[in-house]
Amino acid sequence: DAGLGELFAAQAARTPDAVAVVHGTEELTYRELDERANRLAHRLIAAGVGAGSRVALFQERSVEAVVSTLAVVKAGAVYVPLDTRYPMERIQLIV
After folding, report:
1. Which end of the chain has a smaller Cβ tally under 10 Å, C or N?
2. Are 63 and 40 in contact (CB under 8 A)?
3. Can you tell me the distance from the alpha carbon of 93 to that of 74, in angstroms, rounded to the nearest whole number?
4. pTM of the model
């Protein structure tokens, strides 16, 4: 069975110019999102991230948050979303 990264890449190949994500006035097409996520995924892999890794994402809602989440998945890792509104004690406990 295909994973989320592969399924997204297939969707990007089918509808590359369709809008995939919108946040405020910023938007990315499936092609743009896939390319940006792939670039970040390669950087993560080069840094040693892979299957079994957990990557904490401390971001507010944004296009970059979507890129980061998809990149972690494409790198084979698991993302751990951290809400920027969490108290520091909770964030430290999670991390």
Report:
1. N
2. no
3. 26
4. 0.89
